[in-house]
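Q: Predict the bound structure with zinc ion.
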Amino acid sequence: MNAKVGTIEICEVGPRDGLQSEPRLWSVEERIELIDKLSATGVSRIEAVSFVNPKRVPQMGDAEAVMAGITRNNAVIYAGLALNARGADRAVDAGVDELRYVVVASETFNQKNQGTTIEKTLADYRSIASRVREAGIKLSCTVGASFGCPFEGEVATEDVINIANQLVDGGALEIGLADTIGAAVPTQISNLITKVRMAVGNGIGLGCHLHNTRNTGFANAAAAATSGIDFLDASIGGIGGCPFAPQATGNIATEDLCFMLRNMGFATGVDIEKLIAVSHWAEQFFDSPLPGQVMKAGLFPEVVNLKA
Ligand code: ZN
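A: Predicted complex:
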């Protein structure tokens, strides 16, 4: 195996992105159990909840009860997602460690996802950003549909950079570039990371949120890793989708990502065997097998060691 070539932080988004479009609503107790199991795997960040209107996304209802019910592990950052000022206020009150705020790079998708214009979403952001920072909460921002929009098609690099710059000006410590509909290819990932890095500077964390909709998710993650990304989102077992993006399938599976990164020489701090166990546990709540592959095939080269 390679010598360590760097560290990439993993943000486990299964409890949020993974469950938000599931036909079966997970109970508060089940969501708490999932988060607590994940927090024992060595993953350093979990996107645990989203503070959206439960009438629009009933799967994410009772976010406050979930946050209040989990057993906090001090080594883990618990993040909550917000799409507007109301959601951000709820996240602060619920005691998240990190607020993830989303602006979508295309106007049509932002209006479908956030229910308002990009301009209003950014104005909301400016109004809540100082309150979030004063509360000691880390501000991490995601530019949704950075690599393509299901309604408008291609997204201009300048639009992504323009939004990223405004988010950083408002106090975001990180920018996540989301391939919400899983349309990107590796060259696009490398190019956009390089350009956004030049725009926001080295002091800002950069990450990617990748979906495997067109089977490019892991190639994209490898491209992101070798382009100097700081963090990657992934969901346990590859569960998930987006309720407002047609045909958006699951995130890249966390255990598959951690296996790939480990064997490429990147440190993630995650115990992959423990992640696999959580995937198998979670699978019982789904009607069909989860998309994750390492949970089926097992790790390597550990299997060789077993035979020795
Ligand atoms: Zn997503």
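A: The chain has one domain: 6-307.
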